[in-house]
Design a protein that fits this description.
The protein is an all-alpha fold and 49 residues long. The chain is 55% helix and 0% strand.
Length: 49
């Protein structure tokens, strides 16, 4: 899929597209390795019956 995206852009934009793909991959790796976000407490609401 990444190659299809890179080949579809013009020759001048190929380095920019490759850099963006690398940044997106780095963000995915960092997000998967980091501490998970704490789950917020459930909001207290009144139950109407």
């Amino acid at each position: 899929m990444a190659r299809a995206i890179i080949f579809s852009v013009s020759n001048r934009l190929q380095p920019v597209a490759a850099a963006l793909l690398c940044l997106m991959a780095a963000q995915l790796v960092l997000a998967s390795c980091g501490d998970p976000e704490p789950i917020p407490y459930m909001a207290r609401t009144t139950v109407v019956r």
